[in-house]
Amino acid sequence: MVPGGTCSTAVVLHREIRRIQASSGLTNQMDIQVVVIPCVGDEGYAERQMMALNMETGGSGDKGEIPQVLKPAPAATFYLEEEDEQRYFRFGEPDLEILNTFREMEDYGVKIDLLYGAPAWNVLLRHWPVDGETESSLLSGREIMYVHSGGLEGISSQLMRYRHKGLIDGKEVQHPERQRRVSKEFLDSIQD
Predict the structure, then answer these.
(1) Cβ neighbours of residue 46 under 8 Å, at least 6 residues apart?
(2) Against a cut of 0.85, is the pTM above it?
(3) DSSP alpha helix (H) spans, 31-144
(4) Which of 26, 141, 149, 169 could cysteine-pair with 30, CB 3.0–4.6 Å?
(5) Could you report how far apart the first and last alpha carbons of the chain are, in Å?
(6) How does pLDDT run across 98-116, given as a tens digit for each residue?
(7) How many other CB atoms are found less than 10 A from the CB of residue 45?
(8) Domain boundaries, the chain
């Protein structure tokens, strides 16, 4: 699973995995599939971006040369307040569902950003099985590896946008890791 803006990382990763599989003769033994989760636009935009990049870099235009796109599914009620329509998020727009996913992942010790990581995980978690339901056929019976391809530096500035929208208070604006580091540095300075 790869979050996608222009989806370039997903295309390059997909192409390289296919090349390794073909050159090693392990195509049937190495069942690795790259799936992109659009964080900018929707599945149509992601597919157009990937096809354009593929064609510009020597691809044939065959749809099998680009990764599959994970489409949104209705929200599972185990981590969201209520059932939601199938949708992607507006890029960079503060959204309570994104914030809840960001917080939930932090509770599990997973650091993700609010622009790509949290929206991607929100869509991915919608495909997880809940209370005996079967998971998405795209994920069915597969091990999942999430490739984080962005940075974490912008979390504080993105949290400011959430604060201005009234979704969080001022205490949450600074990323928890920095809060601890600043507090330790402050304590060290006053003890001297």
Answers:
(1) 4, 7, 36, 38, 69
(2) no
(3) 43-56, 96-107, 117-125
(4) 26
(5) 48
(6) 999 999 999 999 989 999 9
(7) 16
(8) 2-152, 153-192
